[in-house]
Amino acid sequence: MSRTTAIAVRELSKTYKDVRALDNVTLDLEPDRIYGLLGRNGAGKTTLMSILTGQNYADHGTAEIFGHAPFEHDPTLSRICFIRESQKYPDDFKVFQAFKSAALFFENWNEQLAQDLVQAFDLPTKRRIKKLSRGQLSAVGVIIGMASRADITFFDEPYLGLDAVARQIFYDRLVEDFAEYPRTIVLSSHLIDEVANLLEHVIVIDKGRIVIDSDAEQLRGTAVTVTGDAAKVQEFAGSAPVIHRDALGALSSVTIRATLDSDQREQAKLMGLDLSPVSLQQLVVRSALSNTTERGLDERTEARK
Ligand SMILES: Nc1ncnc2c1ncn2[C@@H]1O[C@H](COP(=O)(O)OP(=O)(O)OP(=O)(O)O)[C@@H](O)[C@H]1O
Which CATH number is correct for 221-304, 3.30.70, 3.40.50, 3.30.1560, 3.30.9? Predict the structure, then answer.
């Protein structure tokens, strides 16, 4: 593992009875970056995060955080904060007590940030946690995750029940605080378009396998949608792999995997074609769909043997 690696995962696999939740996952995550861990329901995101935080075991392979297996090394665990969608707190805990115990556990805890966020989310700190609404409960997790300023923070779909305004507060404050106190953030989310601008690096997992592991900017440049006269679109697309195709009479709109240079862009313009960028959400959805199709083909071929 190089000195610049925060998380190193090698050939990690995990099977629950007949479900292969992780299938030979290898990844390196650098410190001080915001990662998006994206994927469909049941793709393996929570399983991966729970192994990385020492709350679950892999059947095969290794996972290291700052050079240590998390479950064997307490000092490493205290550098990690894991906020889960269905975070559990002790019965009868009040909100402020949850913050007090987090402050004791996380050495970089920032009380001022916690208080600012309490105000921003309008959270009743004296109320018992079990009486909170679903969105308020999520706000407690978000506040702990942010105010912990842990070296690595995992947010596993932390927004359940948060309204659009509260989610925007979360995104804005995360970016603001990250700019001042960079750390490694791993954010798992289904709301890809909402979080797209936050992410510096994107990891897409599908059926336990990594299907995309790419810098977010680079990833956006790997596909383009070409729209115009169907024959010209076809000519321009040539043999580039097609991710998606829409036809409307003589017009067509084709999304291709290609990184265009300025000459090719000029050529498209001369041909009267329109080029538009592909959103992260589209790329992720298309990758998951093509993985499903390929896996389906693999499995059908296997079955015939
Ligand atoms: N304790 C368990 N016992 C059996 N199967 C499990 C267990 N935990 C997870 N699984 C299965 O493993 C697969 C991966 O689950 P995981 O929770 O990691 O997915 P996820 O990507 O976090 O999904 P979601 O986005 O829906 O939260 C799923 O098929 C799930 O049903």
Answer: 3.30.70
Residues with CB under 6 A from ligand 1: 16-17, 19, 21, 39, 41-47
Q: Which fold has domain 7-215?
A: Rossmann fold (3.40.50)
pLDDT, one tens digit per residue, over 120-151 is 999 999 999 999 999 999 999 999 999 999 99
C-alpha 239/C-alpha 76 separation (Å) is 49
Give me the interface pTM, i.e. the ipTM.
Answer: 0.97
- Write out the two tokens for 208: 């336990």
Distance CA(104)–CA(118), nearest Å, equals 18
- Give nearest CA residue, ligand 1 atom 28: 42
Ligand 1 atom nearest the C-alpha of 43 is: 21
Nearest atom of ligand 1 to the alpha carbon of 208: 14
Q: Where are the domains of the chain?
A: 7-215, 221-304
